[in-house]
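Box 3.1 A note on notation
Throughout this textbook, protein chains are presented in two layers. The first layer is the amino acid sequence; the second is a token string describing backbone geometry. Keep the layers aligned when reading.
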Amino acid sequence: MYYFIQSKKTLYMFSLSAILFFLILSKSTLFAQESEEDKTLAPFFYVQCEDTLINQLPLKATSAKVSISGIIADVTITQTYINEGFKTLEAVYIFPASTKAAIYAMKMKIGDREIMAEIKEKNIARQEYEEAKEEGRTASLLEQQRPNVFQMNVANIIPGDTIEIEMKYTETIVPTAGVYEFVYPTVVGPRYISPSNSDEDDEWAAASANQHAGGNSSFPFQIDININGGMAVFDLECPSHDSSVSTTISSNSAIISMYDATGAEANRDFIVRYRLANDDISTGLLMYKGENENFFLAMIQPPKLPNSNYIPPREYVFIMDVSGSMTGFPIEISKTLLKNLIGNLNSIDKFNVVLFANSSKVLSDTSINANLTNINKAIDLIDNQSGGGGTELLTALNTALNLQGTENYSRSFIIATDGYVVVEKEAFDLIRENLDNANFFSFGIGTGVNRYIIEGMAHVGMGESFVILNEEEAPEIADKFRNYIQNPVLTNIEVDFSDFELYDVEPVTIPDVFAERPILIFGKYKGTPSGTIQVRGLSGNRNFYQEIDISNYTPMSSNSALQYLWARHKIQILSDYVNIEYATDSTLIKKITQLGLDYSLITQYTSFIAADSIIRNEVNPNEGYNSKIVVNNAAAGGIAEEWAVVGVDMHYNSSGNFSIIQAAYPNPFTKSSTIQIYIEQHECEFEKSIQIYNCFGQMVDIIDISDLKEGQHNVIIDFENKKYNTGIYYIRLNIANTPVSSFKILYMKE
């Protein structure tokens, strides 16, 4: 190990360059993460600061039961682990899910003891977990770290314990080109990862980065999938395990099963694809009768391969942000999108443009024909704008809605912005209440898109959001967006539920059906379902009418996921309002919390807690525990002191001293890291050293820095060519044989 000590002055230019480099690197990494596909990944345990040769928590078995009701999957995962090590563990169970997933139940079984988790307010659940952990009781806590990342801590796993985790979640399945695809992520064994010195929310990312496919598994794997389409199921396939599954198909349902005793088939995602569309527009119904409430889902599916006869005349209104932040490639992408979409329209189709920054400007009082001359007029209008001032979305939306629409045309508003606009609560209300007047599609463009706004508009508009972060990905995403919005197949939709007594129905207004977007109408009903549901609209140049006879459909217990579909949607909409209100509206937060408690759903304000009543780790719940290590400091006279590893900030400064470790960069590191320290004037003459400990409290090296004077200094530690394992190390600053500051670093061995 080599060390290089340099003064602040000689490193000033290097430090400035390094800071700029890491800012650029961090921003690039952020963009890469934001552009990742929104999907559910495999859940797994990892044990923090752990030597896999000493403590192990291997996966022994996994199974999944899946019930798919039309477009929503109800999944029960069961995984069995055994503590084959010699220490009592606190393990962390990570579940990276899609933003369309909702966890609604958890059960923990240790040995013969089975503990059902309860949903509670987040701070109460956390407090109960910490109390159980300190008392030596086995406990588990399941929290939402982000909208798409869930984390469960399990405390006091005794050596020899067999622990079984059962988790239930629902997930909405969004079709692509009319094909519904359910993916059960392959199960991944435990991860022995030492978290970096970054936010706790990011710890899961380091662990999940090690997931792999195609490797050999040694545990039994079983999966059973039951599909109830609510309408005819077509083109069912399992491309990932086609030769290994057994399949049973009837008119509106299908069953797919696989059992693999060796685990050889568990090395890749289990994928099922199906269609709910045939050659014409289809309708269907699902119902669930609960103890206190009843739920329904009505679906309008587009045809499998819509031709021009299905597509009514189209009218597109581009609502484009031309403020200063959109200068450069965002504006250019907006113009390209307009050209490509309008260029593929028919001669009878129409379009218009509304530009907004500090005010709104309109291309024409009425929509104009989609021809080359008018497209060039629109481009000239955009080019002649100079951005600046405030950008208010509500004004632009009102301007667009006040434009006279063309009768019997499918009317769509395309909102192109980087999201850095003033978005009032009324703007989301306006979209929700006018889906029967226009379809609303959000398109985010820019290197720093405000996803809260883009995704919020998509949620209230009952659609998907599209975001372009850089020029390289622009053509592909713009093409997907164009395909998503260019083929309406049913407009002017009216739905009459007659004697079917409904309430709390979503959406509050009904948008058009597109070839890439079916329409879902869901909510609650009272009494015994009866009567008919009548669906009317305009498809191409013909009137459309279908009638659903409710007596042909029976409420089924397998459709229980419908209640979570409704509750999750309500929570999502309320969360979007919280985001634009910047969490200042306590009423909204209370509503989200109550929905989580009422429907047993994890939210940002509710968590699951399961705690055993029996004390199982009586001597010392922290003895030999991952959550603490004991450092025996020979340099400090053999005085033992405890340093917290999990959930406690390692960066501290002892009372009465001012010298401090300020930073470490890069952190994590693969070869060397620069430790930035500050020495106070009155401590210059004392002996000073930097001590390096591994996660077990063993000192691996000591650096004499007694020559350092007052000021900021950088000490470079070099781990290259050393036999140090990947993991957490602790840097401690000692002055006059007294520890005054410490810092946690993460070494990632190449």
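Residues 92 and 435 are 43 Å apart (CA to CA). The longest strand covers residues 59-69.
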